[in-house]
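hiii so um. not sure if this is the right channel but i have a protein structure encoded as tokens and i wanna go backwards to a sequence. like what aa goes where. can anyone help
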């Protein structure tokens, strides 16, 4: 996969990497608006097994309030989405849907983990 600055490979089990990602989001003053268990949805809706894969939707409520109050059409553009998924070798990947200041800071925090590498 091409490294475009939006992906970090972490040598941690899935749950530990998910917790580290959530903590990094919170340390930046943002909150997790939604946590979507993709594997569970595939199992429930398609009867397919899949690796552990979760989506985290993050935003800053105060910023979102101001932007949506100013323009109701801004709502869909405010959240930043992260994917956290496991690889076959036990490592975990964190990737983000767009380059933004929040994404850069969160991925930067994750890159500083003792067993993280830019992927």
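sure thing!! here u go:
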């Amino acid at each position: 996969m091409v490294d475009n600055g939006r992906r970090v490979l972490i040598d941690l089990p899935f749950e530990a990497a998910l917790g580290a990602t959530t903590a990094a989001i919170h340390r930046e003053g943002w909150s997790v608006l939604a946590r979507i268990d993709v594997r569970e949805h595939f199992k429930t809706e398609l009867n397919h097994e899949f690796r552990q894969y979760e989506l985290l939707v993050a935003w800053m409520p105060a910023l979102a309030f101001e932007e949506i109050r100013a323009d109701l059409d801004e709502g869909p553009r405010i959240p930043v989405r992260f994917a956290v998924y496991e690889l076959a070798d036990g490592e975990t990947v964190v990737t983000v849907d767009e380059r933004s200041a929040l994404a850069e800071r969160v991925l930067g925090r994750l890159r500083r983990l003792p067993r993280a590498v830019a992927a």
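oh and The domain at 7-118 is CATH 3.30.310.70 (TATA-Binding Protein).
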